[in-house]
Structures are given as structure tokens and as C-alpha cells.
Design goal:
Largest sheet: 6 strands, mixed
Low-confidence stretches: 1-7
Radius of gyration: 26 Å
Shape: elongated
Distance between the termini: 86 Å
Structural class: alpha+beta
Number of helices: 22
Mean pLDDT: 95
Length: about 525
């Protein structure tokens, strides 16, 4: 079988290829519409609330409505919020699904460019589709975690490097620097929108280095990459960091507050470290462990072996490669494999040390089929044996894949509909939230003039001594209008206890039970000062 010169392959796509990409995107758009509305904890907590709060200038009006996420960068959520509040739900979900399905384009281009087989188009299409059907990947279609939206940025960066590898390594210096800068800029935008994408920025940097070439090209590419990455991150992240620094004294509020010392939060880092492995053998075997048991690396159920297979095969290929054993018929050009391996390895290691949450490396699940093909293709095996091995590995991966779809709500307009009980005097009312439950999605349906303070939750508790709690106590004590409690109907005991710390009590006979078109039952209750208190 002949070997196509992957590094110099013409990138112009045929009409049939464009049709394949368009049909794939259309399929995922329809799939998301079929699944229905996202009712995940995160969506109900903050993905609906923070764009509303930003667009309606509520940052100084509300406090901790969505717990820590009340202070997340809202720019990633604004497009969906605007679309969902102005267009039918089915159209909103179709557009959302199409964006998530667009991962097929850079995945296909990467695979198309690097495969060294006669039927490279068929192979690229197969690898791209395998990447889009992982266990967690299927779960996240139509959800607002955005890991499969920002992956489009990351894969686009990687595709730029792969497609232009020869120019980046040997071409004019200005072109090499510009291309590296553009690639880093695209991933930098993803980091600016969502900081957990940062490991992939390091992965792109490693890929830029792995391209090789003379020291001048290396230096120019690195400078271009640093400038581009910083500019991309600043485009979507700098404004919000400056806003947070101005409002709270911590640009990443409330995270890493042991270093920034904002008076509004206590001095700790607030990070979720539940899944970060702390022992050597657990670190070494982590991909095997989360392939066997999803709960060691995420809160969302799934079953998938793609990352584990890629992990084992890449390490095996790298060891054999280091000892000088090379395939005479590599499925993927070694120079491309080196770039892909560097990207995946550094991204994974950075993620392992900082996060350990599987959802944050969804992009590695999606690119794993290409990594597996590259690794197996480098082994010193006959081409037929390589292809049979890949067929077996992919068959196992598909058979073992098990998505456990999150609960969805049926289509209907408006996108979020809350049966809010009547509030007699909205112009002189304040609402207090309690409990850890996700209540942020209810806020946009309440009268907009009502301030909402979460006096009790993941981030703040009545006796935590934080600056925000002190501020809320002053605001509640000084408020002269009507006070209401908003809480999950199943968590009223905690509500009672939290309010007691504020010298408030629930007027139980006047509580109103209400629901929404997503999920849950909630209580809105008038409050009064406890006897003997003022």
C-alpha cells in the first residue's frame, strides 16, 4: 500500500467531504433537539443566571445567588441566553447542537492531514466520528458544561499546527511566528472564556515546540505563541478579571483567596480537589481507574475506554520508538505523531496535577482515536496487523462505551418557565436563598427590582465570618421592606436553621409551593423577625 505524503497534502476539500461534515453537524443538531432541554445542576445553578445578571447589571445588587459560580465569566453563556430568550427552544437547541457537532471539522482535518493510507478520507471520517461518540461526550451533547464547545477552539489550534507543519518548521520566519500566534490565540480565547481550558494552552505550547526545526524557528514560534495566547486570553478574560478585581479585590474571585486576600471571602483557595490523585501509583494508573469507575474522576456517570487505550498505546509506542524500533509503514507521519503526542501528554499531565475532573479533558476523549491510530501505526508491525489491531481496539472501545444521559426536559417556550407566586410589593422586597440547591435559574423570572441574597450555601454560611456575609447581615438588618425566603421544597429544615442565625423566622402558613418547566419544587415564604428581635 502506498504512503501519501501527509505533510504536503492539499487541504482543499471535495464536495463530498463538505457534505459529510455538514450532514454530521446537522445530525448532532437534530440529536440535541431530540434530547431536550438541559436540566443539569450547573445549568440550574449558574448558566442561566450569570448572563442574566451581567446583562441586567446585578453584580452589586445580588450576592452569591449561584454560589461560587455567581462570579464566573459570563461571556461564554451570553450567546445561548440571548438566543433562548428571543428564539424558539427547538431552534436554540439546534444551533447549540450544531456548534457542539462542529468538532467534526477540525477533527476530520487533523486526521485527513496526518493519515498515510490510500483511503485517508474514509479513515479521517471514521476517526472523527469515533471521537464524537465517547461515553461522556454523548452525555454532554445539549448540556451547558461547554467542554465540547471550547474543544472546537482547541482542535482548530491543533489543526492549524498540523496543516502548516512544514511552514512552521522550515518556512519564512514571519509566517512561522504568525501561524503559531494564530494557533495559540484561538486556544487562548478558550482559556479566557473558561479557565479549566488552561491545560490545553500548555498542550498547544508543547505541540509548537515538538514541531522542531532550527533554533530561529523555535524561538520565533514560541514568541508568536506566547503573544497570541496572551492576546486570546485577554480578549475574553481580561475584562472580567479586572471587573472582579475592582469589585472584590481578587481577579479570580473567590478562587486562590489565600493569595489575593479579598476581604469578601475567607482565606482559602475554594478549588474542588476531590478528584486530584495524590499518590504515585494512582497518578500512573489514573486513566485505567476512571475507565473502570467514572466516580474517581467525575460526578457525571459514563463509561469509556478511549483515553485509557490511548494512554497505554502512546506510552508503548513512545518506548519502542525511543529504542529505535520504527514502523516501516506508519499510519501517521512520525513528525505529526510527535506533535499530537506532545499536545496530549502535556495537556494530560497539567490536568492531572491541577484538576483531575474527567469532563475537563473531554477534548482528549475526542482526539483519542487519532492518538490510538498514531501510536499503533508507529509500532514495528506489518500494515495489515496494524489495521487489525486498530479494528480490535476500536471495537472494544465502542462495545464498552456507555453514556448515562442526564435528565432532560421537553421542548416548550419560554425556555425557562417559572410559576412564580405573586409578590405583593416587588419594589420593596428582598429575597433570601438558603441551601446548596441550584436556584439561580429561577432568578430571571422574578421581578427584576428585587435583590437576591444567598445567605447560606456552598460558598457562604451565616457564621463563616466572610466579608460577604457581614455585608449581607447589614443589608438584611437595614432593609425596611418585605423579606421572603426562596428555597428548595425538600430543604426547608436547613432554611429554618440558616434564617434563625439571621434572627428571622418563616411565616409557614403563607408559604407558596411552586414549580418550573425544568425540574424541582420550590417554596417562597414570607419572613418575619423572631420575637424579641429587631
Amino acid at each position: 500500500m502506498s504512503i501519501a505524503p501527509a505533510p504536503s497534502r492539499d487541504l482543499r476539500l471535495t464536495p463530498r467531504e463538505w457534505l459529510f461534515l455538514a450532514a454530521t453537524i446537522a445530525f448532532w443538531a437534530a440529536f440535541v433537539v431530540y434530547l431536550g432541554k438541559d436540566t443539569s445542576w450547573d445549568f440550574r445553578n449558574y448558566h442561566w443566571y450569570i448572563p442574566y445578571a451581567f446583562l441586567n447589571d446585578r453584580m452589586a445588587m445580588d450576592i452569591a445567588v449561584a454560589h461560587l459560580a455567581s462570579y464566573y465569566n459570563p461571556f461564554l453563556d451570553i450567546p445561548f441566553y440571548l438566543l433562548a430568550t428571543h428564539e424558539p427552544s427547538w431552534l436554540t437547541l439546534a444551533v447549540f447542537g450544531a456548534v457542539q457537532g462542529a468538532n467534526v471539522v477540525p477533527l476530520y482535518i487533523i486526521a485527513r492531514q496526518v493519515l498515510q493510507i490510500d483511503d485517508f478520507k474514509l479513515g479521517a471520517g471514521t476517526l472523527a466520528l469515533l471521537g464524537q461518540t465517547g461515553g461522556l461526550g454523548l452525555n454532554l451533547y445539549g448540556t451547558h458544561y461547554y467542554d465540547n464547545v471550547l474543544s472546537v477552539f482547541v482542535f482548530t489550534s491543533l489543526a492549524i499546527l498540523v496543516v502548516n507543519l512544514r511552514t512552521l518548521r522550515e518556512g519564512a520566519l514571519w509566517k512561522a511566528g504568525l501561524l503559531a500566534g494564530i494557533a495559540a490565540f484561538v486556544t487562548g480565547m478558550a482559556v479566557g472564556l473558561k479557565l479549566p481550558e488552561a491545560p490545553f494552552a500548555l498542550g498547544i505550547a508543547a505541540a509548537i515546540v515538538a514541531i522542531g526545526g532550527g533554533w530561529k524557528h523555535q524561538g520565533v514560534r514560541l514568541i508568536g505563541g506566547m503573544v497570541g495566547g496572551a492576546a486570546g486570553g485577554a480578549l475574553f478574560g481580561l475584562y472580567w478579571m479586572l471587573q472582579m478585581d475592582h469589585l472584590t479585590g481578587n481577579p479570580l474571585f473567590p478562587y486562590f483567596n489565600e493569595h489575593f486576600h479579598s476581604a469578601l471571602a475567607v482565606g482559602r483557595n475554594y478549588r474542588d480537589l476531590r478528584f486530584v490523585p495524590t499518590h504515585f501509583w494512582r497518578e500512573l494508573l489514573f486513566p485505567i481507574l476512571f475507565a473502570d469507575d467514572w466516580s474517581v474522576a467525575d460526578d457525571i456517570p459514563f463509561k469509556d475506554f478511549r483515553v485509557a487505550i490511548a494512554y497505554v498505546t502512546v506510552i508503548l509506542a513512545a518506548i519502542i520508538w525511543a529504542f529505535g524500533r520504527r514502523s516501516k509503514e506508519p499510519l501517521i507521519a512520525p513528525e505529526h505523531a510527535r506533535v499530537l503526542f506532545a499536545f496530549a501528554a502535556i495537556s494530560y499531565i497539567a490536568w492531572l496535577k491541577v484538576f483531575g475532573i474527567y469532563r475537563y479533558i473531554l477534548a482528549l476523549e475526542m482526539i483519542s482515536p487519532i492518538l490510538i491510530a498514531a501510536a499503533v501505526g508507529l509500532l514495528p508491525l506489518p500494515r495489515r496487523t496494524q489495521l487489525l489491531a486498530l479494528a480490535g481496539l476500536f471495537f472494544v472501545a465502542l462495545v464498552m462505551t456507555r453514556p448515562d444521559y442526564l435528565e432532560r426536559a421537553p421542548l416548550g417556550d419560554p425556555y425557562v418557565d417559572v410559576a412564580v407566586p405573586k409578590i405583593e410589593h416587588p419594589n420593596r422586597t428582598m429575597i433570601l436563598m438558603t441551601g446548596n440547591d441550584p436556584l439561580g435559574f429561577i432568578a430571571p423570572s422574578l421581578p427584576h427590582k428585587i435583590p437576591i441574597l444567598r445567605i447560606d450555601g456552598w460558598m457562604l454560611q451565616p457564621k463563616d465570618g466572610s466579608g460577604l456575609t457581614k455585608l449581607m447581615r447589614k443589608r438584611v438588618a437595614a432593609f425596611k421592606g418585605d423579606l421572603y425566603l426562596l428555597a428548595d421544597a425538600g430543604n426547608m429544615i436547613r432554611a429554618h436553621d440558616a434564617l434563625e442565625d439571621y434572627d428571622l423566622a418563616i411565616d409557614w402558613p403563607k408559604c407558596d409551593l411552586f414549580d418550573t418547566n425544568l425540574i424541582g419544587a420550590y417554596q417562597l415564604c414570607p419572613l418575619f423577625s423572631r420575637p424579641g428581635k429587631h
